[in-house]
């Protein structure tokens, strides 16, 4: 009886753990903190396609799963799924396939997905380049705006990838510098009390409220536009206008809604990079001066001493929050670089 109770307790703890991890992943995804490496999308796409070519055999198409993508690109689990969606919608010869439902260790069920690659189609593309498909025409989807997140072969893709590698605060600082270059006095708002405003920009009697959205593959939807519209009538800010700035794009509904509201301006990823260049904000190299996200290597180095550490202890050592290190810790476990042990109600203890 006691053994059964212990097993039920363990399953309950693991279930709670799995829900906690999913919640954290959702929050990390919402912040856009999903890329482990500051490599361009073009390089990530090339690594995935190279893996598919290596697997190419008698089958007409090759299936590449998220774990394989994580292995060949070094990205997090959440980003691997984003990469599958992005390649499926932008690279000719690639499409997304939902895999069978799998059962987790806690007994819950989860559906995974895979990228299906037609190697012959990819190889036959002119100059062996990646040709983005034309996107649009369906309600709620981007009207060629997705090129701002899936642009291949141009320097914009590299710069957008670097922007997506910044911390949320680092990205806000970059946005503020763009408007400073246009003569505005800018300051970043305090966390938790920003009312959806990340940057306040003042010039003469004009005040702009800027919301910065650092997204990887998802586009800003109409819900965001509806929320920021209320800032135009908020006496606390007395705003002349509201800007929504993103590294990705906007859905058709979002753009149409913004066009009907006087005082709202939308800036997508390509325009953001263009404005950054006009402001002489160079992003190439590692000395651009903006705070970047942690890498898996930095997290791994903390555990080099060999002492077991909790998630909070790892985060404290890196002077960041637990959510920022959790994705990297899980990735390192999947790669076999570190191990994790369940300890009571703690999420776990990580060790080499």
UniProtKB/TrEMBL annotation:
<dbReference type="InterPro" id="IPR007560">
    <property type="entry name" value="Restrct_endonuc_IV_Mrr"/>
</dbReference>
<dbReference type="InterPro" id="IPR036390">
    <property type="entry name" value="WH_DNA-bd_sf"/>
</dbReference>
<dbReference type="GO" id="GO:0003677">
    <property type="term" value="F:DNA binding"/>
</dbReference>
<keyword id="KW-0175">Coiled coil</keyword>
<feature type="compositionally biased region" description="Basic and acidic residues">
    <location>
        <begin position="135"/>
        <end position="144"/>
    </location>
</feature>
<feature type="region of interest" description="Disordered">
    <location>
        <begin position="127"/>
        <end position="150"/>
    </location>
</feature>
<feature type="domain" description="Restriction endonuclease type IV Mrr">
    <location>
        <begin position="165"/>
        <end position="274"/>
    </location>
</feature>
<dbReference type="InterPro" id="IPR011335">
    <property type="entry name" value="Restrct_endonuc-II-like"/>
</dbReference>
<protein>
    <recommendedName>
        <fullName>Restriction endonuclease type IV Mrr domain-containing protein</fullName>
    </recommendedName>
</protein>
<dbReference type="GO" id="GO:0009307">
    <property type="term" value="P:DNA restriction-modification system"/>
</dbReference>
<dbReference type="GO" id="GO:0015666">
    <property type="term" value="F:restriction endodeoxyribonuclease activity"/>
</dbReference>
<dbReference type="InterPro" id="IPR052906">
    <property type="entry name" value="Type_IV_Methyl-Rstrct_Enzyme"/>
</dbReference>
<dbReference type="Pfam" id="PF04471">
    <property type="entry name" value="Mrr_cat"/>
</dbReference>
<dbReference type="InterPro" id="IPR011856">
    <property type="entry name" value="tRNA_endonuc-like_dom_sf"/>
</dbReference>
<feature type="coiled-coil region">
    <location>
        <begin position="7"/>
        <end position="34"/>
    </location>
</feature>
């Amino acid at each position: 009886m006691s053994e059964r109770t212990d097993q039920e307790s363990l399953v309950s703890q693991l279930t709670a753990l799995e829900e906690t991890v999913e919640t954290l992943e959702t929050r990390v995804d919402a912040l856009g903190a999903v890329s482990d490496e500051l490599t361009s999308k073009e390089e990530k796409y090339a690594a995935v396609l190279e893996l598919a070519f290596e697997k190419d055999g008698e089958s007409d198409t090759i299936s590449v799963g998220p774990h394989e993508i994580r292995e060949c690109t070094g990205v997090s689990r959440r980003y691997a799924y984003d990469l599958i969606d992005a390649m499926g919608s932008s690279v000719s010869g690639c499409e997304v396939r939902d895999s069978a439902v799998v059962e987790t260790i806690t007994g819950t069920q989860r559906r995974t997905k895979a990228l299906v690659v037609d190697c012959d189609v990819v190889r036959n593309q002119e100059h062996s380049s990646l040709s983005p498909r034309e996107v649009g025409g369906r309600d709620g989807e981007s009207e060629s705006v997705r090129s701002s997140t899936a642009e291949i072969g141009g320097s914009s893709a590299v710069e957008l990838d670097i922007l997506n590698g910044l911390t949320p605060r680092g990205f806000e600082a970059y946005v503020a510098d763009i408007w400073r270059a246009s003569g505005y006095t800018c300051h970043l708002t305090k966390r938790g009390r920003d009312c959806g405003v990340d940057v306040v920009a003042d010039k003469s009697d004009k005040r702009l409220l800027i919301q910065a959205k650092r997204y990887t593959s998802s586009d800003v939807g109409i819900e965001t536009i509806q929320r920021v519209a209320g800032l135009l009538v908020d006496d606390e800010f007395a705003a002349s206008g509201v800007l929504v700035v993103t590294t990705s794009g906007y859905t058709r509904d979002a753009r149409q809604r913004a066009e009907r509201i006087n005082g709202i301006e939308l800036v997508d990823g390509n325009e953001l990079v263009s404005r950054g260049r006009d402001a002489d904000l160079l992003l190439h190299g590692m000395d651009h001066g903006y705070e970047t996200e942690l890498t898996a290597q930095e997290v791994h180095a903390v555990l080099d001493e060999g002492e077991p550490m909790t998630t909070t202890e790892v985060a404290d050592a890196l002077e960041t929050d637990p959510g920022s290190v959790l994705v990297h810790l899980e990735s390192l476990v999947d790669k076999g670089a570190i191990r994790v042990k369940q300890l009571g109600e703690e999420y776990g203890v990580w060790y080499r």
